[in-house]
Amino acid sequence: MQAEPIDKRTNSTRLETFSDAVFAFSATLLVVSLEVPESFPALLDDLRGFIAFGLRFAALLMLWSVHHAYFRRFPLADNVNIVLNACLLFVILFYVYPLKFMSEGLVNMLMGIPTNMGMRNADDLALMFILYSAGFVAIFFFVALMYWHAHRKSRLLNLSFLQKKEAAFFARHYLILAGVGGLSIVMAVLKIGIQIGGPGHVYMILGPLCYWHARRHTQEIAELDEHNTQ
User: 138-157 burial by CB neighbour count: b if 16+ within 10 A, else e?
Assistant: First the structure.
């Protein structure tokens, strides 16, 4: 059962253009030094930096894709969506710094380079996870609110029944992401598994949770489709 196209009654072009400019500025904050290395060890350091840059650039690209997909589905540019979008972009600009720090630490760990990244004790490690997860939670919470707002404005957007269900599905989907980030914060505050990176490892449950949620949504749509054809 195919969703009908959206009747674009609102113009979100300027909002998307401004958002793309913010994403572009965020990308510049992720860039590693491009100076020519003067020695082989310096070259290796730069290459390691490019690996970390690739990881955080991929993360930023994923966030841009999430933002882009929303406006392709629901081109809504009313005052509420402008405020929600502004909050989202503000958090993304903040998130660049914890993301850059975490990517450097992850690459060093995978390459077997001993480093504590200037952290003195478990309290500093816990605070690092809290800062990273706080940005993660805020980003996907605002995305969820944007989808829920589109669900509420279904008449303005001339959404079909399936498109309205889709908006609700994505609102729940991104709330799941925010919820797991919240769990990471709780684990960091309580220092549960902090020495082995427990607050970071908890993000691995996102795969099973998102798969279960998507499967449940697909089954619900299939049952509605079957009921309508009877």
Answer: bbbbbbbbbbbbbbebbeeb
